[in-house]
Amino acid sequence: MSKRLPVIISCALTGAADTRAKNPAVPASPQEIADQAIDAAHAGASVVHIHVRDPETGKSSTKYAYYEEVVQRIRASRCDVLINLTTGPGTMLTVPIDAPFRVESIPNAELMTPSERVAHVVRLKPDICSLDVATMSFGDAVFVNPANHLREMAAQIQACGVTMELEVFDFGHARLATHLIETGVIPNSAYFQLCMAVPWGAPATPTVLAEMQRLLPLGAHWSAFGVGPEQFRMVAMAAILGGHVRVGLEDNLYVSPSKLARDNAELVAKASRIIEDLGYQVASPDNARKSLLG
User: Fold this and answer.
1) Is the peptide bond before 100 cis (omega within 30 degrees of 0)?
2) Domains by residue range for the chain, with CATH
3) Which UniProt keywords apply (predicted)?
C-alpha cells in the first residue's frame, strides 16, 4: 500500500448548466440536492460541492433560500461531510457581434457584484467555498473573474473563516492564484481544484496535469476533475500524481460509456473503487478536515 495521504473525493452535485433534460438524475430541488449529498457521503465523498437550482424549472439559481435549505438539511442529517458552496454564478456574459460592445446593453447578462456572489457564504459559513480564478471563453460566452473582484471576494470569505477552493482552468489561472497567495490576498490555507477538459481550458492529459501541478505553491493541497468522458481517467491521474479528486453530475452525466449515472452516489462509488484498486485509501470527512481546514 502507498504511504500517501488518503485521497479526498469531492462530489459536485448539480452545477449550473442546463443538464437535467439530458439526465433526470441531476438534482434540482433543495431536498434532492441535500439527499444526493448525503448519499454521496455514504458512498465515499468527504466534500460536497453545491450549486442550487429553481425546483420548478430546473434552471440555475442564486436564491439564498435554496442554499439555506440545502445546508440546513445536510446539517440536520448529522452527516459529517464537508459543505462546499459555489460562488461561480453571476459571472457569464455574451458579447454581441455588432457594436456597441457595452456589457450593460447585453440582455440577460445577470452579472453579480463580488459581495452578491459571496453573500450566501458569509451568512451560512460552510466549511469551504469555491473561488474561480479564471477569466476565459466558455464557447460563445465569457466567464468573467477579474483580479479586483477576486481580491474583494477573498477578503470577505477570509473574514468569515471559510476555506477557499481555488478553481483554475488553465496555466495562467494557476499562476494568478499562486500570485494572489504570494501577495497575501489569499491565505496559504486555500487549496486548488484543477478543472480539466473544460472548453476552452487545459486538456485532460497527464503531461498537462503534471505541469499544472508544478505551477502550484510548494506543498499546496490540490484536487482535479475531468469533464465528461475524462472524469474517471482524471480520477486515476490525479490520485497517482498525489492529488485529490472530484466527480459528480455537475461535470459528467455518465457512469460508463452510453450509460447514464443513476445518481451522484454511483459516480462516487466508482471513483472509490478506482482509488482503492490503485492501492490508495479513500479519505474520511475527518481526514479531509485535517488536510483542508487545519
Assistant:
1) yes
2) 9-293 (3.20.20.70)
3) Metal-binding, Transferase, Zinc
CA distance 117 to 88: 7
Residues facing 130 on adjacent strands = 165
Question: In sequence order, what are the beta bridge partners of 223?
Answer: 193, 244
Determine the average pLDDT of the residues in 226-235: 97
In 3D, which of 109, 102, 177 has the Cα closest to residue 143?
109
The two counts, helices (H) then strands (E), for the chain are: 9, 15
Decide: 6 and 284 in contact? Cβ < 8 Å.
yes
Strand partners, 129: 85, 164
125's CB contacts (< 8 A; 6+ apart) are: 160, 161, 162
Task: Identify the DSSP state of 60.
Answer: E
Q: How far is CA 67 from CA 128, 140, 204, 213, 292, in A?
A: 14, 29, 31, 32, 22
> Is 261 in contact with 232 (CB distance < 8 Å)?
no
Contacts 24+ apart (CB under 8 A), 226-232: 226/196, 226/197, 226/251, 226/252, 227/195, 227/196, 227/197, 227/198, 227/251, 227/252, 228/197, 228/252, 228/253, 228/254, 229/254, 229/257, 230/196, 230/197, 230/204, 231/267, 232/270, 232/271, 232/274
The C-alpha cell that represents 269 in the structure block: 462509488
For residues 123-135, average pLDDT: 97
The helix or strand, by DSSP H or E, that contains position 84, with its residue range, turns out to be: strand 82-85
Grid coordinates representing 271 are 471513483
Q: Is the pLDDT of residue 107 over 60?
A: no
How high is the pLDDT of residue 103? 56
Asked if residues 70 and 37 have their Cβ atoms less than 8 Å apart, the reply is: yes
Task: Please provide the distance, in angstroms rounded to a whole number, between the alpha carbons at the two ends of the chain.
Answer: 25
